[in-house]
Design brief:
198 residues; alpha+beta
């Protein structure tokens, strides 16, 4: 039987599959006193409580899924919004579009999704009109740049009109490329005629 505080390597106690050179300490649970081998990290035991004591809902972050509901709510409330380490001022980007976080007391909050974010171009158009936009109303970027959300670049259209605009814009881009290619071909042909190779 090992002595409390005794340190051994994993291969010496039969834990050679995962990490044979990892160190373990013979440690007693701080609640029930049950002795067992515990992994050492930076000369400290990873877990102070045994698994059964940790599962009883005591405050121990290594077994966070077993925390009581009250403690879980307090922890999550401490990391929401500006207190979150992921907070970037309430703005984020997704697929090139800018999204803005709204608070429940904001007039335009009904436009926000479940995550409380709304697309910035829709918010800019709604503020310009002085009302919330309906779900079927589409805000189109005239120049095609998704994060250029100035009101002069935005146009409110219906779904069928938006599809027509998109089709026409794509066709125009295709034809412009074709014209450029044909102009380059004409230049090469003219050079060939002048040189007398044709």
């Amino acid at each position: 039987m090992p002595i409390l505080g005794e340190i051994r390597k994993g291969w010496e106690i039969g834990r050679n599959l995962a990490s044979p050179y990892c160190k373990y300490i013979w440690h007693a649970c701080i609640d029930c006193g049950k002795e067992r081998w515990v992994a050492l990290v930076s000369s400290e035991p990873v877990r102070l409580r045994c698994k059964s004591c940790a599962q009883r809902g005591e405050l121990h972050y290594n077994y966070g899924r077993h925390l009581s509901e009250v403690i879980r709510r307090k922890i999550s409330a401490a990391h929401i919004g500006e207190k979150s380490f992921k907070w970037r001022g309430g703005k984020t980007k997704i697929h090139g579009y800018v999204k803005i976080k709204l608070t429940p007391n904001d007039f335009f909050f009904p436009m926000a999704g479940i995550d409380r974010y709304v697309l910035e171009h829709r918010l800019v158009m709604a503020k310009h009109l002085g009302r919330c936009l309906h779900r079927w109303e589409i805000v189109h970027h005239k120049n095609g740049i998704r994060d250029n959300n100035g009101i002069e670049n935005l146009q409110l259209v219906s779904d069928d009109k938006h599809k027509q605009i998109t089709i026409l814009e794509n066709r125009i881009k295709h034809l412009e490329k074709r014209v450029t290619l044909l102009e380059a071909e004409n230049v090469l042909l003219k050079q060939g005629v002048e040189l007398g190779t044709l």
